[in-house]
Amino acid sequence: MDEAKTLKENVKDAHSPAEFWLGEIKDSKSYFKTWRRRSDKVESVYRGENDPTLEKFNVLWANTETLRPILYSRTPKPQVERRFKEEEDNVTARLAGEVLERCVDYCIQIEGHEYDAVMEKNVLDSLLSGRIISRIVYEPYIDKEEDTFRDLTGEELLGLESNQEIPGMEGDKVRVAGEETKGWEEAYIKYVYRDDFLHSRAKMWEDVWWVAFGADLDKDELVDQFGSEKASKIQISTVSEEERAKEREKTGEEGYKERNTVRVWEIWNKRDLEVIFVAEDNKVILKSEDDPLNLETFFPCPRPVFSIYTNDSLVPVPEYTQYQYQAEELNVLTRRITRLTAALKVRGVYDQSISSLANLLSGEENELIPDPNFGKLAQVKGIEGAVSWMPIANIGDTISKLIALRKDTLQTIYEITGIADILRGASDPRETATAQRIKGQYGAMRIRKRQKEIQRYARDLIRLLAEVVAEQFSPDTLMVMSGIEQRQFEGTGMDQVAKLLKDDALRGFRIDIETDSTIVEDEEREKKEVMEFMMAMSQFMGQAFQAVQSGIMPPEIAQEIMLFASRRFRAGRKLEGALMKIGTQPPQDKEKEGKQAELQAKMSVEMAKLQQKDQQFKQELQLEMGRLKIKMLELKDKKVIAQMKVQADLFEAMIDQKTVEINARGGAN
């Protein structure tokens, strides 16, 4: 088949478009048949349903549960920002980015379609079946007015039923369908099970020219989606005995309810930019429509994630197949260890004539067992001579060797899957911070590639969702969903924002859509960046304020520097509107300016008078302080003279006392 042909040219080789597409679906099923069968077996191993009566070591479940939180553990937050952050004419682009970011954040939290739940299922598919696939769904809710009836002149006939006749009326009445308007609209991300997705044969994803999403619909669902006329042409086959038995096994006899459905495929044909709905085993096109979403890549799904990828095929490979033989060896060793452990018991044979030996192992603690033939027991040199024990040392040695061999096999599996790198990165609390960081980086080397691919897929999903919001949502929906009021648009209306969002060239040029990291380790890095931003901004603002006040730096330059720095940070982007207002003043009319100038002149005169009075007061205060200092010196001198006089009097009294004592001693001699 010529790959350059369109559907219209290829259909010439088939009897009808429906037959052509059913042939493509059948060929794609054959293309993925082996992978689907292997994926079913891998899923059975993960659930522990393979050989349920045999002992096993479910290393697949253990590895999967270890890797799931490492690959995805945090809901990404949409981040919509201008691709060129330095542009001056950015009010509309900045508001468009904020509106789009809020709407996307709303859409990934819609109840029943939470983004986190979808990604958890996708990561599990990556680890089990080897491929991730999800899609974007757009659902408008249509409000329809009631039909009206008019005569041939166009005048509306009020209160008229569709089958009511009007006496004397010339001509027939005409039914006018009520106008349909979008009352509300939503877009969300939907998980796609591996059996519900097919695509054309190709070696590279870029060469895929159609994708298809399958769904099992009953009669009522067919009528709701395609109308009673189309639904009546579809033949619904009953559930086969094999499918019925499989369903009974899953749900139980009482919980099983037979449901007759038909598999309907929604085919997105990239060559002709159209979507076709066709039912299996029915040569009928249920519906065909032109490109409904107007996406840049056409397909409502991003490039899938493949656990194992080669350049010559898009058939996924389950990761388990790379170590399934080691896993089976692990199960064999586990069964042998279990059975040998069961055989590891104290057993032996004894002389039946010595009856007390039978109760030897079942007796109570610290109990003596009487035996009438104790003398015979003494003749055979005690219990060791009367009992022949089963040797268990060989069994114990064998179990130890089996355990060591199982450990080696498990290490081999860890090396294959990359879990060994994580174990090497495990840190010791006694190590230094630098040593722990080096080991952590080494342990994440091989895992980081897989994390990056999951992050790429999460980003692509967000981008597709944002593109649907931008292309399909009305200005009213954007305003209500974003929660931004019209007064916040600073002269830019929601219509201008919606126009920018719907323009592919302008939107792609001015808005870049990214996501935060989906792994926990980057949360600390984000906090560190915020702290660095706050410290740098506060330090700069303090220095810039002094420079502006002293006239060294114009206010406009300081503002531009702050904006340049803040646009590099997510938190700074939210502050951009406030930073742009720094240093700006509202315009004033001339009359107000004149009054202010007159008031300022009067205030200057009054201030001059106050300053003169203040200087006089200071001079008078200084003179008074001089007088006080002189008086203090005089008082101080008088106080010193008085103190000296007191000391002289005391000294004279002491001399008189000593003279009296000396005279008294001389008289005594």
Itemize the secondary structure elements and their pairings.
Blueprint: H1 7-10, H2 17-31, H3 33-46, H4 59-71, E1 78-81, H5 91-107, H6 115-128, E2 131-132, E3 134-144, E4 148-150, E5 156-157, E6 174-176, E7 180-191, E8 197-199, E9 210-217, H7 219-232, H8 241-251, E10 262-269, E11 274-279, E12 285-290, E13 305-306, H9 324-343, E14 348-350, H10 374-379, H11 383-386, E15 387-389, H12 393-417, H13 419-424, H14 433-443, H15 445-472, H16 475-482, H17 494-502, H18 504-510, E16 512-515, H19 521-549, H20 555-566, H21 570-574, H22 576-580, H23 590-668
Antiparallel strand pairs: 1-16, 2-13, 3-7, 4-5, 4-6, 8-9, 9-10, 10-11, 11-12, 14-15
Helix pairs in contact: 4-6, 5-15, 5-16, 5-17, 9-12, 16-17, 19-20
pLDDT below 50 for ≥5 consecutive residues: which ranges? Answer: 1-5, 162-171
Radius of gyration, taken over Cα atoms and rounded to an integer in Å: 45 Å
**Strand order across the biggest sheet?**
8-9-10-11-12
- Number of continuous helical runs: 23
Q: What sort of overall outline do the alpha carbons produce when their principal axes are compared?
A: flat
Task: Report helical residue fraction.
Answer: 40-55%
What structural category do the secondary elements indicate?
alpha+beta
Q: Report the sheet with the most strands, covering strand number, pairing sense and barrel closure.
A: 5 strands, antiparallel
How much of the sequence lies in strands comes to 5-15%
Overall mean pLDDT: 77
